[in-house]
Amino acid sequence: MKSTLNISHLKRKRIRASLTVEASLVLPLFLLFFISFIYFIQIITLQEVLQRAMTESGLSMARAVYVYSDFRDVEDAKEADTTIFEEGIQAGIEELADALINNVVLKYVVASRLNVDYINHSFVVGGYDGIHFDDSKILEGNDDIDLVIKYRIKIPISIFGLQEMDMIQRVRLRGWNGHQLTPLYAIVEENDNEENTVYITETGTVYHLQRNCSHISLSIETISGKPTWQRNKNGGIYYPCEACCNNHDSGLGTYYITLYGDRYHRNKNCSKIKRTVKEVPLSEVGGKLPCKRCGG
Fold this sequence. Notes:
Blueprint lengths: L1 H67 L5 H6 L7 H15 L3 H7 L4 H5 L16 E2 L5 E16 L2 E13 L22 E5 L4 E2 L12 E5 L14 E2 L13 E5 L4 E2 L12 E5 L7 E2 L6
Parallel strand pairs: 5-11, 7-9
Antiparallel strand pairs: 1-2, 2-3, 4-10, 6-8
Helix pairs in contact: 1-3, 1-4
């Protein structure tokens, strides 16, 4: 009887020992799976945050393509008075114009729609500074806004010697270039004896139906002294105009700047900001094309 009890006791000890060994093998695998799952969720969340900021930035610029297409060049777009547009379009034009000059600006455009501190404390190697926009393209040969970011993320547990992983995200949007149609409710009066009057500039390539079109009506501000502390609407500083300023300028007196330009002027009639507008009959515009913005 005593022998039987000893055998039973030994079996129970073996079972407990077996469970302990199994637990020691399974528990690390379970913890590894659990940590990997949590990490995977955090990566998905990070990607979603970045994707949303990229999409919002792309949409802002895509909406402004229709308006931007009316300008002759980037400088013209930056100097024009865009306050006539709603705030969203106005911001989109500024972002688009800056991005066309240097796509490094895209990093700051996207950052304005992000919690950068969250990115800096995430798994992204180097934080937000580790995110690169070098492959992004803005209106290059087409009307596309193509935002591409590349970055690396740290892996908390090295798997097969892999400690970091490359990530790429992309948002590609078609610019809203649109097509302007004459509304059906418009009243058109024909008068064979009276010719339409339009407005042109000396160096312009289009004609305008409205005298106050922002293409030919720049917003010029008069200031006292050089604009050493003033900033334009894009946050940039002003540099001396090559046409009307010189290195021996005293810096005193009256100067002129535009809201979106990056030059200050000594002469209000400087050719860089002066728009000499002439009123002429439509038949005398020659090969000039109609301005898209003012309904030409």
